[in-house]
Amino acid sequence: MTKQVRQLDRVVIRFAGDSGDGMQLTGDRFTSETAQLGNDISTLPNFPAEIRAPAGTLPGVSSFQVAFADYDILTPGDAPNVLVAMNPAALKANLADLPRGADIIVNTDEFTKRNLARVGYDSNPLEDGSLAGYSLHPVPLTSLTVNALAGFDISKKEAERAKNMFALGLLCWLYSRPHESTIQFLRQKFARRPEIAQANIAAFQAGWNFGETTESFAVRYEVKPAQMPPGNYRNITGNMALALGLVAAGVRSKLPVFLGAYPITPASDILHELSKHKKFNVTTMQAEDEIAAVGAALGASYGGALGVTTTSGPGVALKGETISLAVALELPLVVIDVQRAGPSTGMPTKTEQADLNMALFGRHGEAPAVVLAACSPADCFSMALEAARIALTYRTPVILLSDGYIANGSEPWLLPDIADLPDLTVTFATEPNGPDGRFLPYLRDPVTLARPWAVPGTPGLEHRIGGLEKADKTGDISYDPANHDFMVRTRAARIEAIPVPDVTVDDPDGTARVLVLGWGSTYGPIGAACRALRQRGLAVAQAHLRHLNPLPKNLGQVLRAYDRVVIPEMNLGQLAHVIRSRYLVDAISYNQVRGLPFTAAELESMLEEVLKNV
Amino acid sequence: MTKQVRQLDRVVIRFAGDSGDGMQLTGDRFTSETAQLGNDISTLPNFPAEIRAPAGTLPGVSSFQVAFADYDILTPGDAPNVLVAMNPAALKANLADLPRGADIIVNTDEFTKRNLARVGYDSNPLEDGSLAGYSLHPVPLTSLTVNALAGFDISKKEAERAKNMFALGLLCWLYSRPHESTIQFLRQKFARRPEIAQANIAAFQAGWNFGETTESFAVRYEVKPAQMPPGNYRNITGNMALALGLVAAGVRSKLPVFLGAYPITPASDILHELSKHKKFNVTTMQAEDEIAAVGAALGASYGGALGVTTTSGPGVALKGETISLAVALELPLVVIDVQRAGPSTGMPTKTEQADLNMALFGRHGEAPAVVLAACSPADCFSMALEAARIALTYRTPVILLSDGYIANGSEPWLLPDIADLPDLTVTFATEPNGPDGRFLPYLRDPVTLARPWAVPGTPGLEHRIGGLEKADKTGDISYDPANHDFMVRTRAARIEAIPVPDVTVDDPDGTARVLVLGWGSTYGPIGAACRALRQRGLAVAQAHLRHLNPLPKNLGQVLRAYDRVVIPEMNLGQLAHVIRSRYLVDAISYNQVRGLPFTAAELESMLEEVLKNV
Amino acid sequence: MSETSVGGPGRLTLSAKDFKTDQEVRWCPGCGDYAILATMQSFLPELGIPKERIVFISGIGCSSRFPYYMDTYGVHSIHGRAPAIATGLATTRPDLSIWVVTGDGDALSIGGNHLIHALRRNVNIKILLFNNRIYGLTKGQYSPTSELGKITKSTPVGSADAPFNPVSLALGAEATFVARAIDSDRKQLATVLRAAAEHQGSAFVEIYQNCNIFNDGAFDILKDPSSRDAALIPLEHGRPLTFGRENQSAVVRAPSGFGLTVRPTSEVSPDEIIVHDETIADPAYAFALSRLPQADLSHTPVGVFRRVSRPTYDGLVREQIATAAADVTDREAELAKLLNSGDTWTIL
Amino acid sequence: MSETSVGGPGRLTLSAKDFKTDQEVRWCPGCGDYAILATMQSFLPELGIPKERIVFISGIGCSSRFPYYMDTYGVHSIHGRAPAIATGLATTRPDLSIWVVTGDGDALSIGGNHLIHALRRNVNIKILLFNNRIYGLTKGQYSPTSELGKITKSTPVGSADAPFNPVSLALGAEATFVARAIDSDRKQLATVLRAAAEHQGSAFVEIYQNCNIFNDGAFDILKDPSSRDAALIPLEHGRPLTFGRENQSAVVRAPSGFGLTVRPTSEVSPDEIIVHDETIADPAYAFALSRLPQADLSHTPVGVFRRVSRPTYDGLVREQIATAAADVTDREAELAKLLNSGDTWTIL
Ligand SMILES: Cc1ncc(C[n+]2csc(CCOP(=O)(O)OP(=O)(O)O)c2C)c(N)n1
Ligand SMILES: Cc1ncc(C[n+]2csc(CCOP(=O)(O)OP(=O)(O)O)c2C)c(N)n1
Ligand code: SF4
Ligand code: SF4
Ligand SMILES: [Mg+2]
Ligand SMILES: [Mg+2]
């Protein structure tokens, strides 16, 4: 190797191209290679809006960002160090995110007059000096690929399609990534068309060799493995982790899992994934609508399954009436809301945290439900299990919030030992529990305050339940005023009484006067911002909520220990509203509602302002 | 007249009997007579739960309470001075509400062994001394009626059915009510069966004469007319007032009114009433479900009508997704929620205030809507107009909350002059508003921040709107992050900026240190409790919210002027939650969730406690 | 619960009484729902299914109070959603006998979508639609089966929408079993319930039910001894469609050549008379039958219109699961394998 | 907007171009939606309705982007609810020409209830269901029209629910106008759109639409020159139902005596061949027609199945209002009367 090798601690690469350019695949492969190397990783795909736009247009740009480092990282990075732009649209759509000095690798073949005009470039940015501040690497990716594949028995179009593998090869060379698994992957993917597999492998290798030989790249980089807890890892997206968590919940509870779902972006992939795991006695039903989906899930729960429904905001809006029924029936039900930008249809492919209000308050009557939120892709696995645990133990609907950011983003996940997963075994009622051998469906367990789960098929426990107010213990219809008051308070109290872990505070030297409180997917950016501040000697504490109802019992105490509480949210302050009300703490609400995750940098500068003023 | 006449300032009578006994009609007639006399009145019907129960059972009891006084009163009274009990079930179901010493008029004919046993009376309460503390008037109402009608050519059953008119006659005698209008009413009601009309009139007169002659009633009472503002009055229920308010809104806006509704207790009567007013260009559509109902209303609004939908909690839960669309489309829409006890089906015939959370927060995404609440039956008229005014002026969904208590309760209503009603004239867009003659559907009015209402049929203004995020001004689909943030904030800000009247405080001598803050139907009981306290020399201030989003601009200042704020609600503290969060005021939340309005007495004693402790 | 068998293995000695609950039945006196309840309670024992394996799921409406009065498992759910809830239950619990009780508003108004989807899926549930052509529980608004021009609380000058024909709608939705019965004819109702219970898949049964409070006499033409024989067309598999006291009327092809019509038996040749066949694969016949009734309900067929076999949704789904799970012995080990699948790496 | 009339008073000179918007059309290249859009844009001018009186209302789905591309009024609403929204608009605005654009998921899955109710009400709206037998927008899940056993993202081992036949469903829901067309046959599509536009009441048009990304070739049998003639049965009012390149196939009554079937023309006598009649009052004929297609779509009738006249919901409702409002001259005075009605009293 004649080229210089430089060590880096962290790199952020963004692959961007047309929807048809295979950028997601390219990014995935790069991520995989990188993971094998032991770096910590965080990824973020960015799909075009819901319809495939015509090729070469700005709305048609698809990108995939991957950050990797020799330490544990929290976000896919605010600003890429490297942009791979497969066409002018990709360059234009992403340039604003690049810091000056970043590397830009462009596919010059696509910078034709027509393509430039299409996205509104008056002159060619590769030539007009407008990219002077960047380190530009013009590479005729398409023609190099086609040339490299000249000897293959494939069409020109097929040869051109392999240009993403050329680019991947080049990047793998540039960052000294291994490539065995990509070659193996390509062999498998195109098992039925070996000539295509070979061509892609050849393109990949041509890209690698191009890096090795061209003058355009003088330096090669290395990023050392990160110090990560020992164990087996895989890279995982939030949606995949939710699906696996639900499968695990079925295994650990020994119950069938029934998913009732209606497709909706960005939640559909949970349905897709779960539909592959029938061997675990997981039933997936694509229902006629969201109401049927949650209804069927509740019906399955009634029958003794773990009933689950997955959706996004508009779907939860439709499910409210049935969730309210589940509150009255006191049956287990897991409702997963992968939030997207609203209101109404909003921006379906963009992330947001604006469904917290609906999860907490969006039902008629006093209809308390448990509300949880996952904070990172891998955390989705644990939180799916936690949602199932609470639903099964306390016989209540549990709403688990995720969002588009962690749903599609990925990070390394330390694979758990199955035996270490929580034991979710449930006990169905089998015997009458009342005087004279009567069965009292609303006689509560003194500890959990849960009512017995007596599934149809159990002799002697025949009983009727419904959405009308029920008499305490007997479950008979009751219009008694005192009983209603009692039942309303009991339903609220039993949710409030569910033990949830105390919130932990990350306040390394205990000197912080400002606490940043977050929930959900802001965990990464908040954490990164806090780290950056601390590295600059500024003390700041971080606490993150995964249980939003009930809230951790120590939260009030935690909040009051700080002079100032800042709550960053991708909404207009929904958690802040709850915190202010509950603890009468004058929390500062910091909000951005752009359909994008916070950048660590913006949080850092916002927090710096706050720190100045305490 | 040989009997003594005693003056009273206030009387509360409860008529109670079987569903088939005509108690609602009896109460209505008594109310009407009383209103003619110039007393202030307040009424409260109490229907059995949703299914007609078998005759003579406790769940089958139907009652009607009327309070009337020579001063302005605020509630139908906590405890009746007189109970008319048509059967043992009626006695049993209502006895607990009676203060000792109250008059009880019972229909002894119904106190048979079988009827007594049916409701669990081991012995006859008329004879076993258990009613010793009351002033009991045993009257064989049925047989007296049948005897009185001996000469009429009607069946025995028909004769028996007239017993409620006998009771009414007796009560009219007892409280010196006029009876012309009842006689006229009966003539009209049974116009097609004159012999029935005659019989009922005869029964009524027999009841009157019975009072005059029997020993059982030694005293007769009079309640002087109240001092009420001069004008024309009628007695009105909340649902009727809402319906008339909507008709008035149509007239005053010169727009067609379109009601999309799906029947649901206790809101259905608004649909029933509005369906009678087609001559005002009011269209009522009984839709296939609540979603279709609000959808059709929104479609009508899009076409330039005043789109309205009326429902109760479960219906609002279903409408959330469409309301969210209305937020995005920025079109006028009035959503009326006549709240009932929840969660789920709950207690459909009982009142509650537990949908405030849903109204404020029950939609996905940041989907702000205006929320109003009527505070008394007659207030429903004004609030329907206010809802229409805001919806039309600001092009926004407005959720107007009523509840079962004021929906069916009634009070005298000072009939307004049509010319004094707000002018709701709207201006549709007719001309392009953008550069180059373009039409910009999201270019806002600088004052109202409303977008133009350009209805189909307007040449040159063809445009497309939808639930996807829209670019500012043009309304084109936009995924631009900054635009989304801007639009989210703009939608919130434009609602927040809607001018609403300042909240007024009733603090007669300005010395109060405790403020009672209420909303909705608690107005009456809170007011009555405050009066009672003040009569006892205790200072307490009352403020009542009719605008819940946006809140009155002076509210913070008002709250901070008091040492203690108490918020009584028929829920678990939903307004309190908002107030605490917004103003960081440590408001005390006082809650009863019994499906019944507060009694003035309980509020009085609760407030007395609070007063002691400031 | 006695498990002693009578009349053969697996048969239980249950009686109507065993299916009564301690809840006071709260329909209006005279309501047609009583007759249906009584029929159900006395019919169920013959199925020989233990009580605990029977589930009634209803929506909201007068009819939907039904589960409270059946001493089986039961859910009185929310308006219109019973078919969806029952589908989830049926899919996971093949051992249960699941009955949906619903009303014309519950099933055809708010619940229309769930109904048609349950039928097309052929989920193994029995759907009993108590059709009183009115909203009973909410006190008398018109329903999707009320006749055009119906005057009700919500339509003081008459409704403006033509009703559904529930049987036609069910057939259009690919239903495999469609029948009609009348509350007051307990024997015929029991026959239909029996056939429904035996059917593998969704069985849709429309039951004409009198609401004596808000729509009294809606079906009198089919009940009154003076009119019913001329109005009712009893459907019996394999029997020619003649009816009337002396079988004086016959169902034949309509003159246009399409659909069916009624003619005096004396005026048609016997081989023109349609012989009823529940099992014809093409629903066109059953559909044609469903169009016979006139606006006044004369010429109303009662009995089983259609009964054909088609795989059930729940059966197919369970088959897929069984196939997939067939060689899983240790689920925890399998889970470990799943979690560890894909590109994994090890940090030491 | 030019109001110059051509070809007669009230006619406008509009062209396809007038109906194009400035929005870039964002369907996948090759999507069947393009052809439908183009046909609509070139067909609309012939109606002579000014642009501002035309409204397109859609739900959510690829197909539902349609309104953005039509320079008329338009609402891209929410999933499944377009028929409900359109009903509110149509009821209050008789002067508009209202078109609902929807997909097989939008109309038949989440929106099934609104669809069947709009049809039974016979609201004056035209419903165009773009049936690609897949969920396009959400990237390839099966839909209620996907064939049984369909392998999709959400059904990796095949779907377990039998599809709806949209035409049968519409007929079961009392539709007065039901037709089918194919995206690629612009002439026939225009003919059907014309008939739909002329129909008073709900017109339901199923348009087979190719989704070349997620369900490519679903209708190839009806498009491929080598197969289409044998597969397609063109419906023309008053013409015998023969088809095939040489009219070698004919539609006749099924041997069972019920339903219809296809036989070689040569083997049947001419008077056995069904003569198509859109206007038969009894929907049994159109229903029988709707059952002809085989699982592979051979024997698929295209054209107008049924076109009958029945009062429209919106028309009846407006009539009621007009009658009631007829003698109201001063609405404010009338309002004063209304408020002052009932028992009133005066305090001086
Ligand atoms: C979401 C919702 N909307 C409306 C209602 C009110 N509601 C209860 S039952 C019913 C209709 C009852 O009619 P039907 O289904 O025919 O039953 P019936 O009472 O006639 O047996 C309605 C509208 C409700 N409970 N929930
Ligand atoms: C309430 C709600 N649920 C789900 C979705 C997601 N969604 C959008 S379109 C669609 C189905 C699209 O299929 P179809 O109607 O056949 O239209 P196509 O895209 O095939 O034209 C779904 C499930 C949504 N937008 N809203
Ligand atoms: S209202 Fe009608 S349907 Fe309901 S219980 Fe009474 S009679 Fe039966
Ligand atoms: S996904 Fe299918 S239906 Fe949607 S635009 Fe692409 S080709 Fe058309
Ligand atoms: Mg009914
Ligand atoms: Mg589709």
Order of helical and strand elements of chain C: HEEHEHHEHEHEHHEEEEHEHHE
The proportion of residues in beta strands of chain C is 15-25%
Principal-axes geometry of chain A comes out as: globular
Radius of gyration of chain C using CA atoms only: 23 Å
- The overall pLDDT of chain A, averaged over residues, is 95
Please give the radius of gyration of chain A in angstroms: 27 Å
Contiguous low-pLDDT stretches of chain A (5 residues minimum) are: none
The count of domains of chain A is 4
Low-confidence regions of chain C = 1-10
- List ligands, each type once: thiamine diphosphate, iron/sulfur cluster, magnesium ion
* Principal-axis shape of chain C: globular
- The order of strands across the largest sheet of chain C is 2-1-3-4-6-5-11-7
Q: Count the strands of chain C? A: 12
If you had to describe this structure to a student in words, what would you say it looks like?
The complex is a heterotetramer, with two copies of chain A (614 residues) and two copies of chain C (348 residues). Chain A has 614 residues and is α/β, with parallel strands linked by helices. In chain A, helix 4 crosses helix 6 (163-174), helix 9 runs parallel beside helix 14 and helix 11 (290-302) runs parallel beside helix 12 (313-329). The mean pLDDT of chain A is 95. By secondary structure, chain C is an alpha/beta fold. Chain C contains eleven helices and twelve strands. Chain C has helices spanning 33-43, 82-92, 104-110, 112-121, 166-172, 186-198, 220-223, 228-231, 284-290, 313-325, 331-339; strands spanning 54-58, 73-76, 97-103, 126-131, 177-182, 203-208, 232-234, 242-243, 249-253, 260-264, 300-307, 344-347. In chain C, helix 1 crosses helix 6 (186-198), helix 2 packs parallel to helix 10 and helix 3 (104-110) crosses helix 4. One magnesium ion binds next to helix 3 of chain C.
What's the short version?
The complex is a heterotetramer, with 2 copies of chain A (about 625 residues) and 2 copies of chain C (about 350 residues). Chain A is of the alpha/beta class and about 625 residues long.
